[in-house]
Design a protein that fits this description.
Elements (H helix, E strand, L loop, with lengths): L2 H50 L6 H21 L8 H6 L14 E7 L4 E7 L5 E7 L3 E6 L10 E6 L5 E6 L5 E6 L4 E9 L5 E8 L5 E7 L5 E7 L5 E6 L5 E6 L20 E6 L5 E5 L6 E8 L5 E7 L10 E4 L7 E2 L19 E5 L4 E6 L4 E6 L4 E7 L3 E6 L13 E5 L3 E6 L2 E3 L5 E3 L3 E6 L4 E7 L1
């Protein structure tokens, strides 16, 4: 190499270094100015928020930023190809009857989905968490509700609701998965993915949307007449989602999500003006008994669980600004003037932000007074104590949504799990808190127990106990 060429390369290196230093200085100045500008905007916005929300904190912004970053990281990681270049998740979760067991006694039912190939089904799950039957579905399903056996029928039925906005639900034999009825909504209605039976099991109540004016309605279906629609009640709100039957047998409890939804899509049309509420209706004539509104109009009242003493547990999906922190699990009893939010302990640092504003399911065990709340976005299931109103702990479970009682006979064994949680990764996880009564008759809890079983199914949305 000649001296000239070496000199030319040295000059080029010097120029490159100078250019890099200039770019670095420019970048640092830009970053500093951007940071100052952002700080000024955040401060101004925060002062404005304080006028209508005295409890607002600057730290909320950090939680909001972390929320967005974590969502982005999860999305980027999920988009990465595997080393083999194939989609390992698709291989694991493809719908197949090869994994079904000969044991035909189902204890739980759940929807399953293979989103890449648009395959959907409902499965029966036994006490060992094996699949005992599988019924293909023409569309993605949401909730599966269990018919009480008060009618002394030889066949217990389950109703499978299509995911909103759907025009279909199906009635299946709970122990074989055989389709008994297929019901389509009337022309100017669509279903919201949830239903409940009367305590006698002779009526099915379904949350529906009047597509002409977006008002919420409850469709009443007669079981003995092959699930013929015989009546309709107003929900006194928009976007009714889950509903449950009160232990008194006469009262429907309805979660009005407050979100206006187009029939042809899942587009949410009124986030700024939504008015969610919890409604109590007389199931016989549709008379409004009580209506309660949450403290923030964007706290969408979505999912419910009923304690045998009449306490309603409410799961919230917050539609407001990402940095805001609002309670996401509430309770209410008929006649109370307002909701009671459950609380975090004083030492808890994550607060409600751990759920990323989204509760997918709530379940309540009336014996232990424990509540389980799931969050697929937050990637966790949490346990709350209704006696103290405090969160007791959480279990990391990515993409978990379904939550159901481990057994309706939990009173028989204080060491059994209280809940079963399902997730989109194919896991069925038992969660519990062993307990015993002290001399004063109070329950004393041990440590959270967790047992995970992996299956070749992507469990989708809700899970229920037969």
């Amino acid at each position: 190499m000649s001296n000239r060429s070496v000199g030319a390369q040295s000059a080029k290196a010097v120029n490159t270094n100078e250019y890099g230093q200039t770019q670095l200085e420019t970048g640092l100045r830009t970053l500093a100015l951007t940071s100052l500008g952002t700080a000024a905007l955040v401060t101004a916005h925060h002062l404005g928020r304080k006028q209508y929300n005295p409890d607002a904190r600057l730290s909320d912004y950090m939680h909001g930023v972390l929320d967005v970053v974590q969502r982005k990281l999860r999305q980027d990681v999920s988009d990465l190809p595997t080393q083999s270049g194939s989609d390992s998740n698709e291989q694991q979760l493809a719908l197949s009857k090869d994994g079904l067991t000969a044991d035909t006694q189902a204890q739980w039912v759940s929807g399953v989905a293979q989103l890449q190939t648009s395959e959907f089904a409902v499965v029966g799950i036994n006490a060992q968490r094996d699949m005992v039957w599988q019924t293909p579905m023409p569309e993605r399903v949401h909730d599966i509700v269990i018919q009480p056996q008060a009618l002394q029928q030889s066949v217990q039925q389950v109703t499978v609701m299509g995911r909103r906005p759907s025009q279909h639900f199906w009635v299946l034999d709970a122990q074989t998965g055989e389709v008994i009825h297929s019901i389509k909504s009337q022309k100017d209605r669509h279903f919201y993915g949830h239903a409940c039976y009367s305590l006698a099991g002779d009526r099915l109540y379904v949350t529906e949307n009047n597509t002409d004016d977006f008002s919420g309605v409850i469709g009443v279906y007669d079981v003995a007449l092959g699930y013929k629609k015989i009546a309709e009640f107003a929900t006194h709100g928009i976007g009714p989602h889950e509903l449950v039957m009160h232990p008194d047998g006469d009262t429907l409890v309805i979660a009005n999500g407050g979100i206006k939804t187009e029939k042809a899509s899942r587009e949410e049309l009124n986030i700024d003006s939504m008015q969610p509420s919890l409604v109590y209706l007389n199931r016989h004539n549709g008379e409004l008994i009580q209506q309660i509104y949450p403290e923030h109009n964007q706290m969408s009242v979505r999912h419910l669980a009923m304690h045998e003493d009449g306490t309603v547990v409410i799961g919230i999906q917050f539609q407001g600004e990402r940095h805001l922190s609002v309670p996401l699990v509430l309770t209410h009893k008929l006649g109370q003037e307002s909701f009671t939010p459950l609380q975090m302990t004083d030492s808890d640092t994550k607060g409600w932000h751990r759920f990323h504003h989204y509760i997918a399911s709530v379940a309540v065990d009336s014996t232990s007074n424990l509540v389980c709340a799931t969050s697929p976005i937050g990637g966790c299931a949490a346990l709350f104590d209704l006696r103290t109103g405090l969160m007791l702990g959480e279990v990391d479970l990515p993409d978990c949504a379904g939550a159901a009682l481990w057994s309706h006979n939990s009173k028989l064994d204080h060491d059994s799990p209280q809940f079963l949680v399902s997730d989109g990764k194919g896991q069925l996880t038992s969660i519990g808190l062993p307990y015993q009564q002290n001399e004063q008759g109070e329950l004393e809890f041990g440590s959270i127990t967790v047992d995970k079983v992996a299956r070749d199914f992507a469990f989708d949305n809700h899970l229920n106990t037969l």
